[in-house]
Amino acid sequence: MPTSEQNAHMYRKITLIGITLFALAIMFLPHITHAIQLIPCNGGVTGYDASGNAQYDECTWDDLLTLINNVIDFIIYTVVVFWAGIVFTWGGFLILTSGDNPGKRKQAKAMFINLIIGVIIVLIAWLGIHAILTALGCTDCLKLIDAQ
Q: Number of structural domains, the chain?
């Protein structure tokens, strides 16, 4: 049965994790709201007439390919970078606090290696998807390596 001191320590730890996650969410809020711009053809709405009725324009094949490319870029720029930063920070924290514990250092090194392997896998997957999109006729699919 945990003592009251152990419960207080666990409560402080959970509070610190909650505050950290909240701060990270606030930091990445602009990136998350950027996801609204994923749909290239504005959902087919081109404007409104004088009476307030929406005027529609059909989305084309290029718009579909651009949407797929936008989703992939969003995943790479926002999700992968966000989680890579968290894993990198946590691994650095483990190394800094490892002291004489070789198990923590080994765990942190494994985290760094897995992080690098994961990012390489994501970039190779992006390359494969880019090749498929280019073969299907996407002309605006080099956003990952173009200057933004």
A: 1
